[in-house]
Amino acid sequence: MTGKLSVWYERVLIVALPIVLVAAILCAGCTGENRTPAHAETLLVSGSTTVLPVAQLTAEAFMAKKPGTDVQVSGGGSSVGIQAVGSGTADIGMASRDLKDSEKEAYPDLVKHVVALDGIVIIVNPENSLEGLTLDEVRGIYNGTYRNWNDLGGPDLEIVVTGRDSASGTREFFHEAVMKKEDFVETQLEKNSNGAVKQTVAQTPGAIGYVGLGYIDASVKALPIDAGSGPVEPTIENIEDGTYPIARELFMFTRGEPTGLAAEYLSFISSPEGQQIIRDEGFVPA
């Protein structure tokens, strides 16, 4: 009889033990789930590579002031940013130009927010001896009228025309404000970011390009531009007082009036702290 009881207990244990283990694992999982902190509140910002450094630096400062938030910033160009916010895949779209008519029609509820002012700077390689250009000469370079720098008083060197690709808001503005909607020369090298344009010009003795003011450093030479009243240096002060001839507003777009985290972030950008970050980065506060 004792032997039969022993066998019976063994069978019970064999059946019951897995059940107990599973229950324990489930309970432990429930307990661990309760200990997991809630996910950070996320804000997705996408678009213009001109606005990108402004967004990145202000996002870092904003997250430091508001723990538990995650502001994710990515580039791609103004067209990408406008499409992203318009289609709902981003909370904020960055653009270095205003909306096209087709975009206004496709996304009628977009609201624009001016976050900074910017100058488009004409840059050449530091080895280039040229000291400045007129707006007409810049247009002539980009439409193919001028092919060698010695045509403009510079070195005997072929001009390597460098610009932006079709997704760029900077290209759109340049095409209207400088080119007067004339076609670009077919040999133009098209780059997908301000940084790529700057790198090409820095590494190519005969190159010319255009970038946002915040991208200027010692690796390239920024040229004064003469729009008819004498050459004007591309500086924050000259953009603020309106004397530099190639200047524009920089935007962030939202679908409808911003709420929640988007509203808080945009409010931070327009605050004295946010505007100081913009100035420190080489842009002009709005």
Q: What is the end-to-end distance?
A: 93 Å
Based on the structure given, which CATH architecture of the largest domain is correct? 3-Layer(aba) Sandwich
Shape: elongated
Q: Structural class, please?
A: alpha/beta
Rg over CA atoms, rounded to whole Å, is: 28 Å
- Poorly predicted tracts of residues: 1-10, 12-37
* Helical stretch tally: 10
Number of strands: 13
**Fold-level CATH name of the largest domain:** D-Maltodextrin-Binding Protein, domain 2
Strand content: 15-25%
Average pLDDT taken over every residue: 88
The number of distinct structural domains comes to 2
- H/E element string? HEHEHEHEEHEHEHEEEEHEHHE
The largest β sheet comes out as: 10 strands, mixed
What is the CATH C-level name of the largest domain?
A: Alpha Beta
| Helix amount | 40-55%
What is the CATH H-level superfamily of the largest domain?
A: Periplasmic binding protein-like II
Question: What does this protein structure show overall?
Answer:
The chain has 10 helices and 13 strands. The protein folds into 2 domains: 43-116 and 252-285, 3-Layer(aba) Sandwich (D-Maltodextrin-Binding Protein, domain 2); 119-247, D-Maltodextrin-Binding Protein, domain 2 (3-Layer(aba) Sandwich), CATH 3.40.190.10. 37% of the residues are buried. The radius of gyration is 28 Å and the shape is elongated. The chain is of the alpha/beta class and 286 residues long. The strands form 2 sheets. Strands 1, 2, 3, 4, 6, 7, 8, 9, 12 and 13 form a 10-stranded mixed beta sheet that branches. It has a 3-stranded mixed beta sheet with strand order 5-10-11.
